[in-house]
Amino acid sequence: MIVAIDGPAASGKSTAAIGVAKALNITHIDTGAMYRAVTFGLIKNQINFKNVEAVEAYLNTLELKFSIKEKNTTLKLDNTDITEKIRSNKINKNVSEVSAIKIVREFMVKIQREMAKGTDCILEGRDIGTVVFPNADYKFFITANEKSRAERRLMDLVSVGDKKVSELDVVLDELRVRDYKDSMRDYSPLKKAEDALIIDTTHLTINKVVEKIVNIVNQKRTLV
């Protein structure tokens, strides 16, 4: 069983996916974190995003691994825990450009499909229901209004020391830039799958979002 969740930045995809995975006792594959990890690695190794050959060479050497530690999922890049490091504002500002690189998306899609092979899992991102798993059993498109998403992103950035609570307007502008880049890129743009169910999380708690998705999945599974 494949559950696909797509949607714009800070709409609540990852938090919802984690909750749904726990409720349904299935595997959670955080594809967004994978793109952030590649972005982190390219920056750390001072690799120019436009140097396709250098990017490809780096992709062929990196090792990504999710692991469970005290009920929390961590992401390791080349055996180093980067779970917190990939949430910085520097990564936020560069991940769209890295995600738009065709060879990076092709590489990630291949890994994501291998990870999901033969297992019940939930994946969230920008193109899960349209490109990675167009035949997913369940598809959702999670969204929220700009202000709500900016407030959520600001909380995340404040928690890692990258922003001050007074910088909501700055974060809102950055979010709009991110939305534009994600939606307008040539390869695998952010797009709702035709058969995806839209869930607006603007006025919903995360528990309500999880409950809604779990109920829909369980109802359809019962009918099969």
Largest sheet: 5 strands, parallel
Bulk shape:
globular
Q: Please identify which CATH superfamily we are dealing with.
A: P-loop containing nucleotide triphosphate hydrolases
Mean pLDDT over the full residue set? 93
How large is the share of residues in beta strands? 15-25%
Q: What name does CATH use for the topology? A: Rossmann fold
CATH architecture: 3-Layer(aba) Sandwich
Radius of gyration: 17 Å
Question: How does this structure look, described?
Answer:
The chain is α/β, with parallel strands linked by helices and about 220 residues long. The protein has a single domain, classed as 3-Layer(aba) Sandwich (Rossmann fold), CATH 3.40.50. Helices cover about 50% and strands about 15% of the residues. It has nine helices and eight strands. Strand 4 and strand 5 form a beta hairpin. Helix 1 packs across helix 9, helix 2 crosses helix 4 and helix 4 runs parallel beside helix 8. The two termini are about 10 Å apart. The mean pLDDT is about 95.
Entry keywords:
three-stranded antiparallel beta sheet, 51% helix, 17% strand, globular
Summarize this, please?
The protein is of the alpha/beta class and 224 residues long. The protein has helices at residues 13-24, 31-44, 52-59, 89-99, 102-116, 128-132, 146-159, 168-184, 206-223, and strands spanning 2-6, 27-30, 64-69, 72-77, 80-81, 121-125, 138-143, 197-200.
SSE topology sketch:
Layout (H helix, E strand, L loop, with lengths): L1 E5 L6 H12 L2 E4 H14 L7 H8 L4 E6 L2 E6 L2 E2 L7 H11 L2 H15 L4 E5 L2 H5 L5 E6 L2 H14 L8 H17 L12 E4 L5 H18 L1
Parallel strand pairs: 1-6, 1-7, 2-6, 7-8
Antiparallel strand pairs: 3-4, 4-5
Helix pairs in contact: 1-9, 2-4, 2-5, 4-8, 7-8
